[in-house]
Specification:
globular; 6 helices; 122 residues; mainly alpha; 0% strand
Length: 122
C-alpha cells in the first residue's frame, strides 16, 4: 500500500461518511472543545509517547516522535462502530465522534512535518 492510496483512496470515503453523519448544529456549539482535543490532545499524546519510547526503549527522538504521532491518532471507523454498537448518544458521543475524525487530520499533518524533518526537507 502506498501513501497516496491510503490518503487519497481509502481514508476520504471512510471519513466523509462519518463526517456526513455528524449533526452540524451540535458540532458548531462544541467546536472549540473538539478542536482543542483534536490538536492539543494529539500533540500531548505524541510527546508523551515519544518521551516514553526515547527514555525507556532508547529509540532515537525522531523514531519516538514518528511512533508517537502514529499512536496518537484514533481510528475513527472503529470509534464510530463502537459508539453505534453501545447506542451512545448525546454530547459525549458527539465529542468523541468529532474528535476522532479531526485528530486524524492533525496526526496526518504532524506526520508529514515529522517525515520532512527526518528526511531533511525543512
Amino acid at each position: 500500500m502506498s501513501r497516496e492510496l491510503v490518503y487519497n483512496g481509502i481514508l476520504p470515503p471512510l471519513i466523509f461518511e462519518a463526517a456526513f453523519q455528524l449533526r452540524w448544529e451540535a458540532l458548531k456549539s462544541n467546536l472549540t472543545l473538539v478542536v482543542v482535543l483534536a490538536t492539543l490532545g494529539v500533540l500531548l499524546s505524541t510527546l508523551m509517547t515519544a518521551a516514553v519510547m526515547t527514555g525507556l526503549v532508547h529509540w532515537p527522538i525522531s523514531a519516538g516522535l514518528l511512533f508517537g504521532i502514529l499512536m496518537a491518532a484514533t481510528d475513527p471507523v472503529s470509534v464510530l462502530a463502537t459508539l453505534k454498537e453501545i447506542g451512545a448518544r448525546g454530547r459525549l458521543a458527539l465529542l468523541i465522534e468529532a474528535e476522532s475524525l479531526l485528530n486524524d487530520g492533525t496526526a496526518a499533518v504532524l506526520f508529514a512535518i515529522a517525515i520532512g524533518f527526518v528526511e531533511g526537507h525543512r
